[in-house]
Amino acid sequence: MEIAVAQFHNRTRRSLSIPAKLLRRGRLLEIPLYYLLRMSDLAREGLDHSGSYRFADHIYRNVPSGRGRLGRWLDARLLEMRAVRSFRNRFLAVRDALRDFLTSVPASPVRDMSYSAALMDVLSVPCGIPREMVEGVRLYRQRTGGTLEGIRFHGLDLDAGVLREAEAFARAGGLPNFTPHHGDALDRASYPAAADFITSTGLAEFLDNTQLERLYTIFFDVLRPGGVLVTSGMQPTRISEYLLRLAELDTHYRSPAELEAIARRLPFASVRTRLDGAGLQTILIATK
Predict the structure, then answer these.
(1) Helix and strand tally (H, E) in the chain?
(2) Rounded to the nearest 5°, which phi and psi values hold at 114?
(3) Does domain 83-287 have CATH number 3.40.50.150?
(4) Which residue from 67, 141, 197, 257 has the least number of CB within 10 angstroms?
(5) Of the candidates 272, 275, 269, 273, the residue with the CA atom closest to the CA atom of residue 287
(6) Is the pTM of this model over 0.90?
(7) Does residue 115 surpass a pLDDT of 60?
(8) What are the residue ranges of helices labelled H in the chain?
(9) Among 35-39, 96-100, 141-145, 255-259, whose mean pLDDT is lowest?
(10) Virtual CA dihedral for 181, 200, 92, 256, nearest 10 degrees?
(11) Tally of CA atoms within 13 A in the half-sphere of 124 that contains its CB
């Protein structure tokens, strides 16, 4: 019998030692660059752990750190790169979309209450550190003075350790009703029964088209009627592509039209895309 094994899709490292690989390939001048980059906390996390949740959250926080003054300076320069600023823009887009969604709830049609006593469910896949939830809720409260009564938050991730951190971060950030879900994003059984708002960033880049359509199919199934999906895709730049190759991250790039075409294979009521201000991140918003 064939058994499916869940994968960490962002862990594509093949070499035990990147410097050894550079040496074997005769790329000697890149070895000092590798060790220089490691002084930056952002670069070191990316090199050691591929596209980890800590790497993403470092960009979202946008606070330079590293080994010594040089490391912090280098980290700040990396955070200022166009590709990194664009990476952060996807967090800002989801944060703001969640704020707007929560703000619009009173004007929304009455939902089917048979699922639970909650008015709505908000889900992040994979959740990593759910900063977009905490910050989106903070902005929602600032704008409306509203409470979180009747709203449940969910985080799905394949890494049980990440989920423990996610739950602690959510509670510390004012989300006492956060439920972790341990499982594979490509397995419908890993999900809560239903959700009204789904955020998913940083996963599409590590899936081929068949896998991405499978992911969107699950999202469509999980969403209640009128529910909203906010997700993203990435386009390359020369420098970012070099750094991703150095870290051995296999990335799937898609244009807005390509990302939208995959989403439109599902019967969403509406699908729209836009490029972020840096012109590299595609933000896709689909409504069921």
Answers:
(1) 11, 7
(2) -70, -20
(3) yes
(4) 257
(5) 269
(6) no
(7) no
(8) 18-24, 30-37, 41-49, 53-61, 68-79, 82-104, 131-144, 160-172, 209-222, 238-246, 256-263
(9) 35-39
(10) 180
(11) 30
